[in-house]
Specification:
Elements: E1 2-10, E2 16-25, E3 30-34, H1 41-48, E4 56-61, E5 64-65, H2 71-76, E6 78-82, H3 93-97, H4 99-103, H5 108-121, H6 126-129, H7 139-151, E7 157-161, H8 169-186, E8 189-194, H9 197-203, E9 206-211, E10 214-219, H10 221-226, H11 231-237, H12 241-246, E11 261-263, H13 268-278, E12 282-286, E13 292-297, H14 298-302, E14 315-316, E15 320-322, H15 327-336, E16 342-346, E17 352-357, H16 359-375
Parallel strand pairs: 3-8, 3-9, 6-7, 7-8, 11-12, 15-16
Antiparallel strand pairs: 1-2, 1-4, 4-5, 9-10, 12-13, 13-14, 16-17
Helix pairs in contact: 5-7
């Protein structure tokens, strides 16, 4: 969808900002450009909507060499979101959002209806915020309007230059989550500039790590964190890349342990047998449809009437996640609930219980995923040399 072919940009003073760059962004893909200040990220992005012209090389958007496309017409097909949002201060939020549809000659009513729809999509109720002016919004809300405005004419391509750079970390994380949710619905082809490796890893389908006008590595986030291509990339992603990697490694079925499982309506005597068979200190409790209820301890089972039901002794379990959630989320859920394990459910099948994840398994799956990347294979195929048990 966006293709750079040997693109170089040399400014008039001789600075080479981008040096013989070739890469491609597929349709519907979100690529983050990350690197230290001054390495050429913004120059790269501004060449896509012809705010800057390359010194040599070609850029194609949807197969078309953009040097032959009228810049104004080109920009209407390309949404652009920047850090200093650039909203018109004397226009309402609704009119700001409807800017491009207006320029495209849409009827006023249709443009405003579309703007309202977009505001809703970015989480701003148009009946509450539509008639406000930009200075009556918080920084995070202004950024949302910026995103809504860029999407208003439904452009296939979105360029985003540090769009969440000016807000505090908590708001930033919320905007990132909202943007990921939005992107899963609208599936634009996105180039996203950031100098924050965490943001790049969280948002990107692939990341381009920049060093001085060149791409040092262009790969999936897990691969960049797991197997940095050069010492420069390793240094840039940081010594704590194992931790960052937690956020891009999903919980897989093979990571789960299978403790004994009993049903709410089983007699405690059955639960006692099951626990004794497996020498376990607790069992997971599910309902008749296999949905998680909670857990029951061996002590609670032993001290109850053997004919009573598991239900009478079971405790609720709130620490659970769907399969595919990140290991970081798993770790944080364990800490939040002060839990020694969390239940993992199949989110697609009415929260069907699948197994549990323990801290030891979490550690193991993180190591497996690092090893798998280093060897270029799948995580399930990796055998670990485990540290001998104590
Ligand atoms: N108009 C210009 N004239 C001369 N040099 C420029 C011009 N614009 C940018 N540069 C230089 O080109 C290089 C790349 O700049 P660019 O803005 O693309 O970097 P960046 O990676 O986006 O940085 P940042 O994260 O700080 O925005 C820098 O050395 C910068 O000083």
């Amino acid at each position: 969808m966006i293709r750079f072919e040997h693109v170089t940009k040399r400014y008039a003073d001789g600075t080479t900002a981008v040096d013989d760059l070739s890469f491609e962004v597929a349709e519907g893909e979100l690529v983050t450009l990350v690197g230290p200040s001054g390495c050429g990220k913004t120059t790269t992005m501004k060449m896509v909507n012809r705010l800057i012209e390359p010194s040599s090389g070609r850029i194609l958007v949807d197969g078309e060499d953009i040097s032959a496309v009228d810049p104004v017409r080109l920009r209407r097909r390309i949404g652009y979101v920047i850090q200093q949002v650039g909203l018109f201060p004397h226009k309402t939020v609704l009119d700001n959002t409807a800017t491009v549809p207006h320029l495209l000659g849409w009827q006023r009513k249709r443009a405003r209806a579309r703007a309202a729809e977009l505001l809703d999509l970015v989480g701003l109720d148009p009946t509450v915020y539509g008639d406000r002016y930009p200075d009556q919004l918080s920084g995070g809300q202004r950024q949302r309007v910026g995103v809504a405005r860029a999407l208003a004419a439904d452009p296939p391509v979105l360029l985003m230059d540090e769009p969440f750079g000016a807000v505090d970390p908590v708001v930033r994380e919320r905007l990132q989550s909202e943007f990921l949710r939005l992107q899963s619905q609208v599936r634009k082809t996105v180039l996203f500039v950031t100098h924050d490796i965490e943001e790049a890893v969280r948002l990107g389908d692939r990341i381009a790590v920049y060093g001085n006008g060149r791409i040092e590595q262009f790969d999936a986030p897990a691969a960049v964190l797991g197997a940095p291509a050069t010492p420069y990339v390793a240094d840039f992603v940081g010594a704590d890349r194992g931790l960052k990697r937690l956020s891009v490694t999903p919980i897989e079925a093979g990571d789960l342990e299978q403790p004994p499982v009993v049903r709410l309506d089983d007699p405690l005597s059955t639960a006692a047998e099951r626990l004794a068979e497996e020498g376990a200190r607790w069992a997971v409790v599910v309902d008749d449809s296999g949905r998680l209820h909670g857990w029951v301890s061996a002590d609670a089972v032993a001290s109850g009437d053997p004919d009573a039901r598991v239900r009478s002794r079971a405790r609720r379990m709130d620490a659970w996640l769907p399969l595919g959630a990140s290991l970081k989320k798993a770790f944080s859920t364990m800490l939040q609930h002060d839990a020694g394990w969390i239940a993992v459910l199949d989110g697609d099948q009415a929260d069907h219980y699948l197994g549990v994840l323990t801290p030891a398994r979490l550690h193991e799956s993180l190591r497996r995923s690092i090893e798998a990347d280093a060897r270029g294979g799948a995580r399930s195929e990796v055998d670990l040399d485990t540290v001998p048990g104590l």
